[in-house]
Design a protein that fits this description.
This protein is mainly beta and about 110 residues long. The chain contains no helices and ten strands.
């Protein structure tokens, strides 16, 4: 069983930046496409960014040009650089494979507010 631990969230003003990090207990990044997901209050969890084993990336339209996903196979981590944050980015952020194969971690809360 793979476990994910997300970190790096916090309270940030609109226009600010955060860098999220995800660590996995197993050597999962070498074998699967990885994704960053988020769930805002009252909304379904959505995939916002993904990175393939080959390093190709995709983003949901609402974060294109602002978020960057990257992976480090040696360290077994996947990161999400978030710039120009907006209040609508407020959510709990999670990482998992794409498609989802493992139990969700606790996530990390991102709150964008002035």
């Amino acid at each position: 069983q793979v476990q994910f631990v997300e970190s790096g969230g916090g309270l940030i003003q609109p226009g600010g930046s955060l860098r999220l990090s995800c660590a996995a207990s197993g050597n999962v990044f070498k074998f699967y496409t990885m994704g960053w997901y988020r769930q805002a209050p009252g909304k379904q969890r959505e995939l916002v960014a993904r990175i393939t084993r080959g390093g190709s990336t995709n983003y949901v339209d609402s974060v294109k040009g602002r978020f960057t996903i990257s992976g480090d196979n040696a360290k077994n981590t996947v990161s999400l650089e978030m710039n120009n944050l907006k209040p609508e980015d407020t959510a709990v952020y999670y990482c998992n494979t794409d498609p989802v194969l493992w139990v969700w971690g606790r996530g990390t809360q991102v709150t964008v507010s002035s």
